[in-house]
Design brief:
The chain is an alpha/beta fold. Helix content is about 40%, strand content about 15%.
């Protein structure tokens, strides 16, 4: 048993002993299914505080020969797996967190330190097998396998730290990538590696358009694949915690939901646990350590980037092309690269089917709002002033003023948002209601299913509920505002907010393409 070779299960035991532990051991059933196949090299990237280290420690505790973990896994989901006992503590494991070897003062020595430390431990464990002149990890593993037949499970946490924190040091990055290549793509690594699992924030670095380690299967925030339910907390898991800790799930969903990974709604574990333990609905995101990194990103001078961020702050989604991002922190060519990095960092959600990015929840919306205000965006300030006037007119029931202000916003910002159809109208509405983010949650948007409507629902935050009613807004194109209002009633759109009680404004808006005019109808009711 060593520090990095065949480690014990202390860290996983500590996780089990925490007050809130969510069982993710079914992941082991999946990794077990890959042993003995050509799919056994995994890179699972996810944002900070999404359980990367928890997962790495769990896998290490399960596979490592350096401990007996049967008691720890007793009663957990993986115990029901058919291969559970077959692989439990049966492998030599190499498990390390790159942060342990990282030092800014001696960054050029990082790869050598990893190599020498691991090789020294292997020599102590296999002193009768390894020759004294072994200098590399692949050579050591190959010799051990040739003599004993033993294969290794290799687990690397924060694998991308040098890519992120030494982003401008090309020499050390190339040396590190070469180290990984020799380890995982050397002479028949499948002979001595039963499973490789590396995890970090970024997917594997690209050179041109190819992955540096193309024998890895990658699971990311863009395409989580089979690992979707193991990245963060699922909605069903959050509901159980809400019942246990007496939290309003509807409120939790509004604050922290938003990551749509495959068929799962996924929540940031750090935020949910912090809420359950502390009881306060707030943003816990700034504590993740990546906040400062987004400030220069959102201020990059790429065409359309700022307007896209303003659209997303208003509740809209924007199209993003993520395929050419080089998976590093410096190779930005356009706004798509910036938006793609923000998706990997967890600051944006991603709709895989529609290829669109969006701000996932109120927590992240708050962080973006603070970041843009800190940088004093003139575009945002202008939008907010006009938007506040529009919101006040809606709350006052001044239909003519609302129509005039929509017209003004349309004309003033026509260079940013073009009117082509009803979807363009809905985009203008999201911009027009930008100031609502101070008082309302991110709008719930029902996308058009046919020509002529787009539905928005704005729910006031609890602290503003006494002064701000909920808003149900229906848009029409070349019809009438009264028709929009009638549709809200006829189709019972208020049923989408069954849990809400209080004042409610029904707002119908129409845009006539021929006259270029907006009209508005507003009706107040109680729910």
């Amino acid at each position: 048993m060593g520090r990095f070779v065949n480690p014990d299960n202390t860290t996983f035991k500590a996780a089990l002993n925490t007050k809130i532990y969510v069982d993710k051991t079914e992941l082991i059933e999946f990794t077990n299914s890959l042993i003995g196949t050509t799919e056994n090299f995994i890179c699972n990237s996810r944002p900070r505080r999404f359980g990367k280290s928890y997962t790495a420690n769990m896998l290490s505790a399960y596979y490592s020969k350096g401990c007996d973990s049967r008691e720890l896994f007793c009663g957990l989901a993986v115990e029901k797996s058919s291969a559970y006992l077959e692989y439990l503590n049966k492998f030599d494991v190499i498990h390390f967190d790159l942060q342990w070897f990282f030092s800014k003062e001696h960054i050029d020595e990082t790869v050598d330190l990893i190599t020498n430390t691991i090789v020294d431990e292997l020599k102590k464990i296999y002193e009768d097998v390894l020759s004294v002149d072994v200098r590399t990890i692949p050579d050591a593993l190959s010799q051990i396998n040739a003599v004993t037949g033993n294969r290794f499970v290799i687990i690397i946490d924060e694998w991308d730290m040098l890519i992120r924190d030494a982003s401008k040091n090309k020499a050390i990055q190339e040396k590190y990538i070469d180290f990984l290549r020799r380890l995982f793509k050397g002479i028949e690594p499948e002979k001595y590696i039963a499973l490789a699992y590396i995890t970090g924030i970024l997917p594997i670095k690209k050179y041109n358009t190819q992955s540096a380690l193309n024998n890895f299967n990658e699971y990311t925030m863009l395409d989580p694949g089979h690992l979707a339910s193991y990245i963060g907390f699922t909605e069903s898991e959050v509901k159980i915690l809400c019942d246990e800790y007496h939290k309003d799930f509807t409120e939790v969903k509004r604050w922290y939901d938003g990551y749509q990974l495959g068929e799962y709604h996924v929540y940031n574990p750090r935020a949910v646990v912090s809420l359950m333990m502390r009881g306060n609905f707030q943003s816990y995101w700034t504590q993740t350590g990546t906040y400062e990194s987004i400030l220069p990103l959102i201020n990059m001078n790429f065409d359309g980037l700022r307007s896209d961020i303003i659209d997303m702050l208003s509740g809209d989604s924007v199209t993003v092309i993520p395929y050419f991002f080089q998976n590093d922190m410096v190779s930005f060519r356009d706004k798509d690269d910036v938006l793609t990095l923000l998706i990997h960092l967890g600051y944006l959600g991603y709709d895989q089917k529609r290829k669109q990015a969006f701000i996932p929840n109120e927590e992240i919306r708050f962080e973006f709002a603070m970041a843009t205000k800190l940088n004093k965006w003139s575009e945002l300030n202008n939008f907010e002033k006009e938007s506040q006037n529009l919101l006040n007119a809606v709350l006052d029931g001044d239909e003519a003023a609302v129509a005039d202000m929509l017209e003004k916003i349309h004309n003033q910002y026509i260079s940013i948002i073009q009117y082509n159809d009803e979807n363009s109208l809905s985009s203008v509405l999201t911009i027009a209601f930008l100031s609502s983010m101070d008082y309302y949650f991110k709008p719930v948007r029902e996308l058009p299913t046919g020509r002529g409507f787009a539905d928005f629902v704005y729910i006031p935050k609890p602290e503003y509920k006494a002064d701000y009613p909920a808003l149900v807004v229906e848009l029409k194109w070349n019809k009438s505002a009264s028709t929009a209002l009638a549709q809200i009633k006829a189709k019972h759109y208020t049923e989408s907010i069954k849990e809400y009680t209080g004042r409610l404004l029904l707002v119908g808006i129409n845009y006539d393409k021929k006259t270029k005019e907006h009209t508005c109808c507003i009706e107040e009711t109680d729910k």
